[in-house]
Amino acid sequence: MEGHSHTKAVLNRIARAAGHLNAVKAMVEEGRDCTEVLIQLSAVRAEIVSTAKVILKDHMQHCIVTAVKEGDAQALEALNRAIDQYL
Questions:
Q1: Predicted pLDDT at 42
Q2: Which of 17, 56, 71, 77 is the least crowded, having the fewest Cβ atoms under 10 Å away?
Q3: At what angle do helices 34-59 and 7-29 cross, to 10 degrees?
Q4: What CATH code is carried by the domain that includes residue 46?
Q5: 70 band by pLDDT with thresholds 50, 70 and 90
Q6: SS (H, E, C) 38-63
């Protein structure tokens, strides 16, 4: 991801997700209410989905556009495999 326009945004989102996940860990260790833990877990999931969207959009706008122009079918196949695995 070095040199990608999304690097700073992705790192910020990962830091937020890690913070939420650490909060979940602390909540479980403290024996907090399950509904509170679930709400915090939903924040982790939302941050991960948001991060994936940033990466996917940037990849499509730059790497995939270039691959299509150059006829690089392998890049499209790799993207399809990554999407299949992510979903």
A1: 93
A2: 71
A3: 170
A4: 1.20.58.1000
A5: very high
A6: HHHHHHHHHHHHHHHHHHHHHHHHHH
